Amino acid sequence: QLQASGGGLVQPGGSLRLSCAASGSIFNINVMGWYRQSPGKQRELVAAITSGGSPSYAGSVKGRFSISRDNAKNTVYLQMNSLKPEDTVVYYCKGIVTSPVPHDYWGQGTLVTVSS
């Protein structure tokens, strides 16, 4: 019910924009975010944004990545600039609904590869 897109191959220093759209059946998404997961490691938060537009970032991406959302379209974006090889990983989007019934929604992963 969350559809992520925008991954691909980019050279170091390049940019990519990820998008994640929630289906129309999902309402009241309080927080939308992006996570990433390397093989054998736990999924980690990259960036998140509240319905009011307040963003938060992991230290490793602060100043390089920017998260935004369009509440009317139920879509969250992740603009990734100055990409590094260590950003190569699968990215997942997440939507957190807190009411009336708390529920977390995950999108399918999208692979970002930073390589020359």
Per-chain topology:
Layout: E1 2-5, E2 8-10, E3 16-22, E4 29-37, E5 44-50, E6 55-57, E7 65-70, E8 75-80, E9 89-97, E10 103-106, E11 110-114
Parallel strand pairs: 2-11
Antiparallel strand pairs: 1-3, 3-8, 4-5, 4-9, 5-6, 7-8, 9-10, 9-11
Q: Which segments are poorly predicted (pLDDT under 50) over 5 or more consecutive residues?
A: none
Helix content: under 10%
- What structural class do the secondary elements suggest? mainly beta
Count of alpha/pi helices: 0
State the separation between the terminal residues, measured CA to CA. Answer: 34 Å
Mean pLDDT metric = 94
The biggest sheet amounts to: 7 strands, mixed
Shape: globular
Number of strands: 11
Secondary-structure element series:
EEEEEEEEEEE
Radius of gyration: 14 Å
| Beta-strand content bin | over 45%
Question: What does this protein structure show overall?
Answer:
With 116 residues, the chain is an all-beta fold. The protein has no helices and eleven strands. Strands 2, 4, 5, 6, 9, 10 and 11 form a seven-stranded mixed sheet that branches. It is globular and about 45 Å long. The termini are far apart. The mean pLDDT is 94.
Features:
116 residues; mainly beta; seven-stranded mixed beta sheet
The gist of it:
By secondary structure, this protein is an all-beta fold. Helix content is 0%, strand content 54%. The radius of gyration is 14 Å and the shape is globular.
